[in-house]
Amino acid sequence: MNAPTTELPVVVIGAGPVGLAAAAHLTGRGLTPLVLEAGPAAGAAVREWSHVRLFSTWGELTDPAAEKILAPTGWTRPDPTTYPSGGDWVERYLQPLADALAEHVRFGARVTGVSRAGRDRVVDADRDTQPFVVHVTRANGREERVFARAVIDASGTWTTPGPAGGSGLPALGERVAGDRVTYRVPNLKDPAVRARYAGRRTAVIGSGASAFTALAQLADLARADDGAGTKAVWILRRGISGSTFGGGEADELPARGALGLAAKAAVDAGHADAVTGFRTEAIDRDTDGRLVLVAEDGRRLDAVDEVVVLTGFRPDLSFLSEVRLGLDERLQAPVALAPLIDPNQHSCGTVYPHGHRELAHPEQGLYLVGMKSYGRAPTFLAMTGYEQVRSVVAAIDGDQESADRVELTLPETGVCGGAGLFDAPESDQAAGGCCAPAPQLIQLGAPTGTTAGGC
Fold this sequence. Notes:
Shape: globular
Mean pLDDT: 86
Distance between the termini: 47 Å
Number of strands: 16
C-alpha cells in the first residue's frame, strides 16, 4: 500500500458494539478511525430493543481495548457477573465509549456505497493500490464522499429482518398487513404497546431466543391483571423435539438457557399453543379485519389480532455492490467463515476461533465483522465480534503475528436455529428427507415425553 493511502483513515460502518470496539483497537494502534453511523446516537439498533435483557453477562459485553479508552474518563466497569438490558448496555458502555471517541465518530451519516477510487468492480488495473471511496448521505440530505485505506463494515443486520414467509420471501399479503405485523420483540412495558397486545391473540413466528422472549413476555402479560384473555400462538416450521427449547439448564450461558425454559413454561401453562410444521405462505384478513395465517399446504389457522415475526436477520449488501465480496451462497457469510458457523452442520452453534483470514474478501482491505459477518447464521455473540476486530485491525496495521493469534472459547449454545436442513425434524434429517412434518396444533399443557436438554 502506498504512503498516501496509509495516511487515510480506516472507515468503520456502524457505531454499535463491534464498530466502536474496532475504533478503539484502531486508536490503540495509532491508526485513525472514522466511524460512520446512520442513526442519531451510538448503539442505534440496541436502543430499539432497550427493554430486552441480554443473556450474556457484562463480563462478555465489554471489549478490552474499549475499556482502555474509557479508563481515563472515570468510567466504572459494571459488575461482570450481572446481566444488563439493551438500555443498560447503551447507557453504561456504548454511549460513554462513543463520547470518548467523539472526534472519530459521525452520526446521521448513512453509507450508501463503497468502491475503489476510479475503479468499479470490473476493473483490475492497479485496483489494490487505490483507496476506497465511501459515499455518505447525511441526515440533512447532503451527500459526501470519504476516502479510506480500509473499510470495516460493522453495520449489523438489524434493519433487514427475515420475513414471515416460509420460503424466505414475504408471505402473500404480509406487506399489506403491515399495520398488525412487527419484526421486533414488543416492548410490553410501554403502555401503548401493552394495550395493543393485552387481551389479544398473537402469533409468534420463530424458534430462537427472540421468540422465546416474546412468548415469555406475552405469558407474563396474560397473568397480569390488565392482560386477561391474552393468548399466543407459536408458529414453528419444524416439529417439537428435545432441542426445541434450547439448552435449558445445560446451556453454558445460564440466562440464555432460562429463556427457553421460560418459553416452555408459557406453553405448558396454556398461555400459548404451538403449531408445528407450518410454513407460512399467505396472510389474509377475515371479515373483522383480523389476520389469518395460511400454510404452503393450504392449512388455515384461526384468526389472530397481531403477528410477531422473529425469523432472524439477513445482511444488507446493497451498498457493497461495487466491491468484490466472497460470500457463501447459502449463509451470505464470508466463504471461509461459513463452514464454521453453518447451523446445518453446527446444530448447537459451535464456533472455531476465527479472525482476519476467515473474514477476508477478494477485495483486500474490506472486512465484514460482527453480526453482519455471520450473514444469516443466528448464533453470533458480542465476544466473537470483539475478537474479530482485534484480529482485523492487527492485519490492517501489518501485524500478522497478532492478527493470526486468534483464541476464542465460546459457551456451548442451546440456541439453535436457521433454515435449510436445520428446519427439518430430527427424524427427517436422519432419513435424508426433504419435507416438513404435517402441520399440527399442540397445546403443551403436560409433558410430551421429550426433554428440554442441551444439544
